[in-house]
Target: Electron transfer flavoprotein alpha subunit apoprotein
Amino acid sequence: MSVLVFVEGLNGEVKKSSLEAASYGSQVAQQLGTTTTAIAIGDVQEAALAKLGEQGVSKVLYDGDSRLNQFIADAYVKVIAKAVQQENAKVLVFSNSNIGAAVGAKLAVRLNGSLATNVTALPTIDGGSFVVTRGVFSGKAFADVALTSDLKIVAIKKNSIDITSGGGSATVENFSADLADADFAVSPKETVMQDTNGGVLLPEAAIVVSGGRGLKGPENWHLVEDLAKELGAATACSKPVSDMDWRPHHEHVGQTGITVSPNLYIAIGISGAIQHLAGVNSSKVIVVINKDPEAPFFKAADYGIVGDAFEIVPKIIEAAKALDK
Model:
């Protein structure tokens, strides 16, 4: 028996959210007195997989079938299900990503497992009881959920678990689920990936700098980008901004866009409509910059600055540059 962790890759490297999942899985394995195995798919370098040993993973099963470089739900489910059965895994850990949420649900049905998404803390394990804490109501509340099936499937909320380090190197073994063409019968016609331009992928970011209509036009977006660059952050925007084509839609954060849960969310010139808050209120710290003291976003903020963004943001950028010196 082992704890199995599904690992996602990007550009040959393991995603930060998967390092968090591996750290979580290894700590659960310690509680259960067992080992941690990872299953990886697609475009991830072997050296990057071996480094998962630093998070306590002892073995990595790797299926390098190039057809898996693109997310195909049925094929991913087949590969992971075979790994669960081969390793006799009783706990399966994902990152709470689009892939993790979709595949986790399918696996729960296929393997008769109990699934908990958006999990924020290590489980409480007492005898046969396995209880996890998960965020609910867009992060406004928490619920303790008992997973009672033989297979427990857990999807970890991003930025909720610290990445551990200090272990050794994991062994990497080739793995195959003998996929057939039928496993790829349902596939997306096109996959559009966010162009990070060497920066941080928005769903993975620990810090997000976001802008709204208060910036008055796309020609002023350099304020958001410059601050994000200094902080090592991803950039985001409100829905009106993406609707007006100031920014691409994949940067739109909110109820109908991407949901983020960074350690720090900086909102510049965003009023704070409830639809936007639904996508960001899981952030650990929210800073709001707005010249309107009645902007509703201030009610959700941990820190607020009432003032003109065109005066305040350049000062913050200069302060961030000074910290780097």
Remarks:
- The helical segments are 16-32, 46-50, 73-87, 98-110, 222-231, 239-243, 274-280, 309-324.
- The radius of gyration is 21 Å.
- The chain has two domains: 2-184, 202-322.
- The mean pLDDT is 92.
